[in-house]
Fold this protein.
Amino acid sequence: AQSVTQLDSHVSVSEGTPVLLRCNYSSSYSPSLFWYVQHPNKGLQLLLKYTSAATLVKGINGFEAEFKKSETSFHLTKPSAHMSDAAEYFCVVSAGAAGNKLTFGGGTRVLVKP
Amino acid sequence: DAGVIQSPRHEVTEMGQEVTLRCKPISGHDYLFWYRQTMMRGLELLIYFNNNVPIDDSGMPEDRFSAKMPNASFSTLKIQPSEPRDSAVYFCASSPTGRNYGYTFGSGTRLTVV
């Protein structure tokens, strides 16, 4: 079985300050991990993915995430928030026999203040 | 590649009417997923197909919902009869085989049942 926990349902940051979105996962197998972003009234877009190569993964729009097996974490960060980063972010795990079936976290809604 | 294409983008219908949502996956992707998203329940997996065959429909809320995939390039999600509580955004996603790819999502269909 696999599961994902996003530790914050809402995060508020000021423009220009760092963003940290926390994600912990549980998996019986070596996982693949993803972050998706959903802007208001839009579909989900892949930000980045970890697939057992480098543990520090860089994605689009300046985001990056670090896979830490010992902590079962895959936190998403960005050094400097932009107004356009206001969106909902989903941490996702894929593992096991049903490798094509993804398990989504509950989402973190990011508010960026000017 | 045009991505995953969903139609219509918006649908407003009266309670009791039949609603059909359509999806064209990315060519070469052999998995197709239907999701529903609401504020109250978040993102829910309704059903998914592999090579046009339904694999898991345990998320389909009730018999009023049905999904088909007659060929590799087309799928439908039908609600008959529709009810106001079916109002949601319905997403289609596709992926190739393998757990490292993640899903590509369509832009969604916003369904309102009045």
Observations:
- Residues 63 and 78 of chain A are 5 Å apart (CA to CA).
- The mean pLDDT of chain A is 92.
- Chain A touches chain B through 22 residues (CB under 8 Å).
- The first strand of chain A starts at residue 2 and ends at 6.
